[in-house]
Amino acid sequence: MPKVAIILADGFEEVEAVAPIDALRRAGVEVIIAGLSKEPVASARNVRIVPDVSVDELNPQELDMIILPGGAGGVEKLKQDKRVEDLVKAVESKGKYISAICAAPTALAKFGLLEGKRATAYPTLKEDIKPALYVEDKVVEDDRVITSQGPGTALLFGIKLVEKLVGKEKAREVAQKMLVEWE
């Protein structure tokens, strides 16, 4: 079964973290919730999530995908953390998926991973994902980079991640059970 990690930092956007976790776990994917430390991580609206591990405990060799949720405060912390940058780059260099939603594609841009890619982000941040070509779709896939626009697209983003990891049929099944209009 595929294994993915989602990295949370204080100020993350709740829906953009929990919706993909939910969709992926419904599909049988192992989702590891990682924090910058093992301490509970407070979201933008002070919902606290206890991470399974700290980012230091993640092994990029074991991951099929990395997910960065949005939330401006959390994304700024992710962008400034060299461990996060190194981990994302290591997963990408192994030919695995990297994904980000809302403000988080700006982290991928900062890490130099959007060069020549089509991507999306929260609409007011389209300049901040350059050199990517901004696409105004809810979810954008370019090779092994998957990006999405924001809280309202989080379930579609999660279903797309399911599709990439376990196939279209499973994605369709999860979407149907969650009452998500997909495809």
TrEMBL record:
Record-given protein name: 4-methyl-5(B-hydroxyethyl)-thiazole monophosphate biosynthesis
GO CC annotations, alphabetized: cytoplasm
SUPFAM superfamilies: Class I glutamine amidotransferase-like (SSF52317)
Source organism of this protein record: Hydrogenobacter hydrogenophilus
The UniProt record lists the keyword Cytoplasm: no
Gene3D superfamilies, alphabetized: 3.40.50.880
InterPro entries hit by this protein: Class_I_gatase-like (IPR029062), DJ-1 (IPR006287), DJ-1/PfpI (IPR002818), Prot/Nucl_acid_deglycase (IPR050325)
Keyword annotations of the record: Repeat
